[in-house]
Specification:
This protein is of the alpha/beta class. The protein folds into 2 domains: 3-18 and 87-195, Rossmann fold (3-Layer(aba) Sandwich); 21-82, DNA polymerase, domain 1, CATH 1.10.150. It is 51% helix and 16% strand. Strands 5-4-1-6-7 form a 5-stranded parallel beta sheet, sandwiched between helices. It has a two-stranded antiparallel sheet with strand order 2-3. Helix 3 packs antiparallel against helix 4 (56-66). The radius of gyration is 17 Å and the shape is globular. The two termini are 16 Å apart.
Length: 198
């Protein structure tokens, strides 16, 4: 298989970028990180917002109600936007290295507000050959439709995919992708080494 037909596809939050929302919500609610993380995986508010079906204001109202928060929706939305962090240490170097040898893309469950920050502040468009965002596609990982959309757009014979959420890794694997459960650039590099790609 030629490199032309191999794509490396990366999740963003937890893999290449920091997102502090789970910790932030845990602090606000007094619940554990694992409890909040599990809630967000199945959150109707997150699914609707990150599949582009509602805007930020409606999302904040729904999430506040889901978590039984005593906080104005506007404040919650402001905090949510502010919890987007920057690139993890070593991520920029890793991306530059692999992009010199392979075709690269990102696929993220995200929303219009975080996406704007990623593009405008962090120059996301310059880090990958292709970028895919759930709110623009209209589906949410691990919906098979989102993997089908990306596979069709890339026209790839093989996709190697990296994500930090086990249920999404399972969904991508069920769709037929070569998937790897990783958290951060060091684990990505180790997986690439196992695959003989670095």
């Amino acid at each position: 298989m030629t490199q032309q037909h191999l794509w490396l596809v990366f999740d963003l939050g937890g893999v290449l970028f920091d997102f502090h929302g789970v910790h932030g919500l845990a602090d606000i609610t007094g619940r554990s990180y694992d409890t909040i993380h599990a809630s967000l995986k199945h959150s109707p508010a997150c699914r609707l917002f990150e599949s582009g079906r509602i805007g930020g204001k409606e999302f904040a109202v729904l999430l506040r109600d889901e978590l039984a928060l005593d906080m104005p929706p506007g404040e919650l939305l402001e905090r949510w936007v502010g919890w987007l962090g920057g690139l993890k240490p070593g991520a920029a170097e890793l991306l530059a290295e692999v992009r010199a040898r392979y075709r690269t893309a990102c696929l993220s469950n995200t929303n219009e507000l975080h996406w704007a920050g990623l593009m405008d502040i962090h120059g996301l468009g310059g880090l990958f050959e292709r970028t895919f965002a759930s709110h623009e596609i209209g589906h949410w990982k691990p919906d098979p439709e989102i993997f089908a959309h990306v596979a069709d757009a890339l026209g790839a014979a093989r996709i190697v995919y990296f994500d930090d959420n086990a249920h999404i890794v399972d969904g991508a694997r069920a769709f037929g992708w070569d998937t790897h459960h990783v958290q951060g650039p060091l684990e990505i590099r180790a997986a690439l080494g196992t695959l003989g790609l670095v």
